[in-house]
Design goal:
Number of strands: 0
Radius of gyration: 20 Å
Distance between the termini: 71 Å
Number of helices: 6
CATH class of the largest domain: Mainly Alpha
Mean pLDDT: 80
Shape: globular
Structural class: mainly alpha
Low-confidence stretches: none
CATH architecture of the largest domain: Up-down Bundle
Order of helices and strands: HHHHHH
Number of domains: 3
Length: 170
């Protein structure tokens, strides 16, 4: 009989995959707000997976930053652009073939990474529990430049969206 944590893992993993699929495919509605709400549910179920891994800080950051701040930004942009329901388009074969090739390539990379991770797990590397002090030290000492570049990139993207959505005054 599987343990309760195994059942919780299967439930959260299944919900993450289901909500992620509904976010992308969105068979219920063509409204982008519905996709954004499915993305929130995907993020919340992913936070449940982090809790099962005893990464409580990551779970809290996942909820606060991604489900909170980033989704508010997404919804703001959707409302600012005044996106309505999209018309159904015909299937583009080139896009379908290239998308399938990209997914298969990413699946190959994932399988290769998991295969090589089994060898790393056999070496007996020690696991570090979710402590925020070493994470902060690594983030702001070793990765301060990528952190700042990412913040500037997000700022430029926000300004670009506002400029693109600005209506011309006549």
């Amino acid at each position: 009989m599987p343990a309760f944590t195994d059942l919780l893992f299967l439930a959260f993993a299944g919900l993450t995959l289901l909500f992620g699929f509904l976010c992308v495919a969105n068979p219920l509605s063509r409204n982008p707000v519905t996709s954004a709400m499915f993305l929130v549910l995907t993020i919340v179920s992913l936070a449940g997976l982090y809790v099962l891994l005893h990464a409580f800080f990551l779970a809290a950051v996942q909820i606060l930053v991604y489900a909170g701040a980033v989704m508010v930004l997404f919804l703001f942009v959707i409302m600012l652009l005044d996106l309505g329901e999209e018309d159904r388009r015909k299937l583009n074969r080139v896009a379908l073939i290239s998308g399938t090739a990209a997914v298969l390539g990413l699946a190959g990379v994932l399988v290769r990474a998991l295969w090589s991770a089994k060898g790393a797990a056999a070496t007996g590397a020690t696991l570090v529990e979710g402590n925020t002090a070493p994470l902060g030290r690594i983030l702001f000492q070793s990765y301060v430049l990528p952190f700042e570049i990412l913040s500037i990139l997000l700022l430029v993207a926000l300004v670009g969206v506002i400029l693109l959505s600005k209506k011309e005054l006549k």
